[in-house]
Structure to design on (340 residues):
């Protein structure tokens, strides 16, 4: 079975920031669409993509926000791309090589995002599509973010003032006159086979601003992850820690399965849903114990445990030691000249 479509929390954060700024009840709306309410520090965590799109549309309607996807995209910067994608772009000697890397690593941003290049006369189209989401309503909210990020990537080579001659949406959506007026040299198309922007072919040889960085070796490049069902489920759960972990029924609903089918699917891999939740909690807690000076109770709460005692008992079952002992042992290993 294909994985659950996911997107990085980073792409939800500008929507909630706008809602918070106008005093809208964003938390209740997030809960309605089974999205985590606590996003601070979780930019690189993953959440279900389609509920996030429905959330954006519901917020746009209830708060009467015009072109919500565009307004959210205005808050996004090149630095908001995942670190891995920025690294491979930074090591690309030309715009063309960078765009090829973007095609390869697009799933780091949205796990079902497909980006490819098409030559049209003297223009190169940078196309994108969410696999399996064809016909889904309100895709313009996601497509605005995809399109603006492509623009930010080209600007790393062409300069901050560059804008595409054309911005095309796969969605049957037309930006408002006010939105279009902010792009006076750009034409907008709607209902295209894919979303895309165009880049003149003559620009493809432009060097990057960081063209002194040596190219990545083949060994360093490795391959993008493949997000199958179990992989995407494991990837999604950490974003819910600290704000109320998804119930079994909620996780099954997000996966598009009945509760029984969801349990059977996990059982084929020798797992239960509680196994996955426990593993996500442990991974989060152990990382914080190793890498931060946060208080034990803070780590417990952020990992989805109700209190210090519950956390300590669960952690001892997993490791044989208390959280405090685990932290001390980890730090002794880090300072030791020989591996533990």
């Amino acid at each position: 079975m294909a994985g659950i479509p996911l997107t990085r929390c980073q792409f939800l954060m500008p929507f909630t920031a706008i809602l918070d700024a106008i005093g809208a009840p964003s938390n209740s709306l997030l809960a309605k669409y089974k999205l985590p309410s606590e996003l601070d520090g979780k930019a690189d965590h993953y959440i279900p993509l389609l509920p996030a799109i429905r959330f954006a549309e519901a917020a746009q309607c209830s708060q009467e926000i015009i072109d919500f996807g565009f307004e959210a995209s205005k808050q996004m910067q090149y630095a908001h791309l995942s670190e891995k994608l920025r690294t491979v772009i930074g090591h690309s000697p030309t715009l063309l090589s960078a765009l090829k890397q973007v095609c390869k690593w697009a799933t780091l941003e949205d796990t079902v995002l497909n980006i490819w290049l098409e030559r049209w006369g003297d223009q190169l189209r940078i196309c994108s599509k969410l696999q399996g989401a064809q016909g889904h309503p309100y895709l313009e909210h996601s497509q605005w973010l995809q399109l603006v990020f492509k623009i930010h990537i080209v600007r790393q080579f062409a300069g901050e003032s560059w804008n595409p001659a054309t911005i095309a949406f796969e969605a049957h959506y037309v930006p408002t006159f006010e939105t279009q007026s902010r792009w006076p040299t750009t034409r907008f198309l709607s209902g295209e086979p894919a979303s895309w922007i165009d880049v003149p072919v003559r620009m493809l040889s432009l060097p990057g601003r960081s063209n002194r960085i040596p190219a990545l070796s083949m060994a360093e490049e490795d391959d993008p992850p493949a997000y199958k069902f179990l992989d995407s489920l494991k990837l999604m759960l950490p974003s819910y820690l600290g704000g109320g972990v998804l119930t079994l029924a909620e996780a099954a609903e997000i996966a598009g399965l009945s509760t029984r089918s969801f349990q059977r699917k996990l059982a084929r891999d020798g797992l239960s849903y509680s196994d996955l939740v426990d593993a996500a909690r442990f991974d989060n807690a152990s990382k914080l114990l190793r890498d931060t000076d946060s208080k034990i109770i803070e780590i417990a709460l952020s990992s989805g445990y109700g209190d210090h005692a519950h956390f300590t008992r669960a952690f001892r079952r997993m490791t044989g030691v208390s959280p405090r002992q685990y932290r001390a042992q980890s730090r002794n290993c880090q300072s030791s000249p020989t591996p533990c």
About this structure: Residues 125 and 198 are 4 Å apart (CA to CA). Residues 241-335 form a domain with the Arc Repressor Mutant, subunit A fold (CATH 1.10.10.60).
